[in-house]
Amino acid sequence: MNRPGPRMIPASGPAGASSLAPWETLEVHQVACFAPWFSVLRDRIRLPSGREVPDYYRIEAPDYVLICPRRPDGSILLERHYKQCLRKFILTLPAGGVEGGESPLQTARRELLEETGFQASRWNAGGSFTVDGTRGICRAHFFFADGLERVAEPQRHDMEECELVFCGRDEIARLIADGAICLLPDIALLGMAFSTLFDSTAEEGEAL
Amino acid sequence: MNRPGPRMIPASGPAGASSLAPWETLEVHQVACFAPWFSVLRDRIRLPSGREVPDYYRIEAPDYVLICPRRPDGSILLERHYKQCLRKFILTLPAGGVEGGESPLQTARRELLEETGFQASRWNAGGSFTVDGTRGICRAHFFFADGLERVAEPQRHDMEECELVFCGRDEIARLIADGAICLLPDIALLGMAFSTLFDSTAEEGEAL
User: Fold this and answer.
1) Neighbours of A35 (CB within 10 A)
2) Mutation choice for A interface testing from B84, B119, B198 by most A CBs within 10 A
3) Global pTM?
């Protein structure tokens, strides 16, 4: 049995939705708060079917930035961290939470300097993406940092201890295959760094 | 001032950590449970500095799968969904939670059929990645589905309403730039689909 494929709906944007109706938010209630880290919200909603759902849970956390610091030879600066959620050491890109009053770019400049001692002369935005389509959580703001220069010693507190390492493309591919690079946001930004899909938003984006 | 770069530490894997010590987990306490969706855990830990941290919060949720269904012409099947966390319609790859007793591949086959009515004759794993390096949350299991055939009508309940659309590479790039594709896991898997970085783990991986 080979049925016809789905109707080709123009994918011209969210507003193009033809037969779908949005959900209606009837009430938003904060049910738990673990400040300053995250809070849990319970939405009461009405679906297009008319059914009310009393407990659609979401999570809200501060946004964070993720930075891809690159050298002219294509190698990328990674940090080796202990990760409590995984109970092991892994390699990650530099990252950090957006603090009150900061723009994501300001956070990225601050975190790169604090964590690594590097400054970058050229910054390009790689886009901002919602971490989870169901719970929401926060947005991750991606940046590419080029023109690196080491200008200071890292300023890390005792929960930020790490080692720095520059890795080339082939080593990064191996580290992903081996599971040493294993965080979803790192996979997304490293994929972007080596993909042809994001030229317009990242690599050829206007310098910030 | 141009200081020497970081010491080149062999990035040969987590076990290669030279000067770093792991954190010590002293106690794990579940402080909130929003079953079956997620729970909040509070770890008491001791850092290598000797300092005790009484409240390192993590989130645990069931793993999910994310599927990249591809046609021979390179176009990819996307779903247009209303997302409560964003209060708008967006385009996403087919996804779904791993239910008790299922392998991620079983979840992927089930979700693709239920949400889209398609079966795939060839499945390749794209890797499994932890959603958040601080909170943990869960793992996202990536799959590529090729050899698509429509064999049934979609079986969606009223929180899963969506429209299906096949998009080619250039349109996907535009939809990302426009923000219609805006979820971090979708960016990661679509980047993987069009990147040269993941050949060994995904596109040339052994068929499942």
Assistant:
1) 6
2) B84
3) 0.90
